[in-house]
Design brief:
The structure is a single chain. This protein is an alpha/beta fold. Helices cover about 50% and strands about 10% of the residues. The protein has a domain of about 290 residues: 7-stranded beta/alpha barrel (Alpha-Beta Barrel). The chain is built from 19 helices and ten strands. The strands form two sheets. Strands 1, 2, 3, 8 and 9 form a five-stranded parallel β-sheet that branches. A five-stranded mixed β-sheet has the order 4-5-7-6-10. The termini are far apart.
């Protein structure tokens, strides 16, 4: 019997407003509240709420046969709590049916696994704690940002206590092998590796409503037929998708909700297929071999590498400048700075700077709020410059910055003293004014 692993990514970045050069040092608020709120509410109405409602009804009717995994970023959860708390409630309601397994990842969907291990561990712990607080689950399977994975990253993930990880199954890594098996990490075979079947996953995510596609229209019956026609020895089919596929990337009028409904119902009633959680798969299915991934892979673009975020000089400079602050951030205790630090790490900021075109250009433009990657780079660097000024006043980086920070502190103390003296003076003047008599001329 083949098992199907359905995994949905739920992520929305906190978008920066147009932050100009003259804002640096003068305005410390970086976020486009209107766009963030509008995006969350729009997707909640079109995607999150209707899809959660559909899955809830299916979970109730299928009585334990529906099993789905979710990887929800902390920055998305935070925005739901602010702009659309009903989405959190719908996930809690769905969780109570027992049909959901939550996976762990970085809180802000960051690239910290590539840059700074302590920052990475901190991000993961933040996310794990939030999932536990909201849904009462402690994840045992990990999904890194954008499915970024390498042998080294996987070995580190196991040290952090995770039993398995999900990642992409690219051709240049697997070669003649199939993604439809369980593998183990090449450096630590105790970590199980589930690899995404990108062909079948992308058929739903990106090709479903494409009328020029040779397989259009895609029906649940046809899709299940493709799965059942796979080699009988292939035990697991990993379908990992953006949750925004349902009602967002693929609009409701395309029939995507009907497809999801019939697909789930047909799998649940089929004697040759079943749904399983990632934790069940790594526990019950024996791995066939190790998978060697010496260099990081991801699920982005045709290359399935890191070039979507670190493929040009702008991205590398922004990434380097940001993560050069890690050591100083360890000494920072300012809550506002720590919060902005986490938001600055969101991988989407680097994605917006991507200069790829051709086959990947349409996908990048769909997710990019900036008119050009150069505008995205300048905007991010302006924000980062202001952030560094604020950080310098709290955790100076060198002797000059220490002297500047000391002067700022001295000025702040003097301003506070002046305000205190003005308040005392006003307090002394009030009784005098109250007791003063005014003569009226007759």
């Amino acid at each position: 019997m083949k098992t199907i692993c359905l995994l949905f990514q739920v992520h929305q970045p906190l978008r920066h407003r147009r932050y100009r050069f003259f804002d640096i040092g003068n305005d410390h608020y970086y976020y486009d509240d209107y766009t963030n709120e509008t995006t969350i509410k729009n997707l909640s109405e079109k995607c999150y709420l209707p899809t959660n409602d559909l899955l809830f009804k299916l979970a109730k009717s299928l009585k334990g046969k529906l099993k789905i995994a979710f990887s929800i970023t902390g920055v998305a959860l935070e925005q739901f709590e602010i702009y659309a708390p009903e989405v959190i409630r719908s996930f809690k309601k769905l969780n109570k049916t027992g049909c959901i397994e939550f996976l762990s990842e970085t809180w802000s969907h960051s690239l910290s696994s590539l840059g700074d291990k302590p920052a990475f561990v901190n991000q993961v712990k933040m996310h794990e704690q939030r999932i536990s607080e909201l849904f009462g689950q402690k994840p045992s399977v990990f999904r890194n940002t954008e499915m970024i994975y390498s042998d080294e990253i996987g070995a580190h993930i196991h040290k952090m206590g995770y039993k398995g990880i999900v990642t992409e199954g690219p051709r240049h890594i697997l070669g003649w092998k199939s993604p439809n098996f369980v593998y183990v990490n090449a450096l630590n075979p105790r970590l199980k590796v589930l690899m995404r079947n990108f062909k079948l996953s992308d058929d739903i995510s990106f090709r479903f409503s494409n009328k020029d596609w040779s397989e259009y229209p895609l029906t649940a019956e046809k899709f299940i037929g493709w799965i059942k026609s796979l080699n009988p020895r292939e035990e697991v089919v990993n379908l990992f998708l953006n949750y925004e596929t349902f009602g967002g990337i693929q609009p409701a009028k395309s029939g995507i909700f009907d497809f999801l409904k019939y697909f789930i119902e047909d799998v649940a009633s089929d004697n040759e297929l079943k749904f399983s959680f990632p934790s069940e798969i790594i526990r019950e299915i024996q791995p066939v071999s190790a998978v060697n991934v010496p260099y990081p892979i991801s699920w982005a673009d045709e290359e399935r590498d890191l070039t979507a975020w670190l493929g040009n000089d702008m991205q590398k400079e922004a990434y380097g400048k940001l993560y050069s602050l890690c050591e100083r951030m360890k000494l920072c205790t300012n809550d506002k700075l720590l919060k902005d630090w986490n938001y600055l790490q969101v991988s989407d900021h680097f994605y917006y700077m991507c200069t790829k075109m051709f086959s990947n250009g349409e996908v990048h433009s769909y997710f990019n709020p900036f008119e050009s990657p150069y505008e995205a780079f300048i905007n991010f660097m302006n924000v980062l410059s202001d952030f560094k000024i604020r950080l310098n006043s709290v955790v100076p980086g060198n002797k000059v910055e220490q002297e500047i920070a000391a002067m700022h502190q001295l000025i702040d103390e003097k301003e506070k003293k002046i305000k205190k003296m003005e308040a005392e003076l006003n307090a002394l003047q009030r009784p005098a004014k109250a007791g003063k008599t005014v003569r009226i001329r007759k």
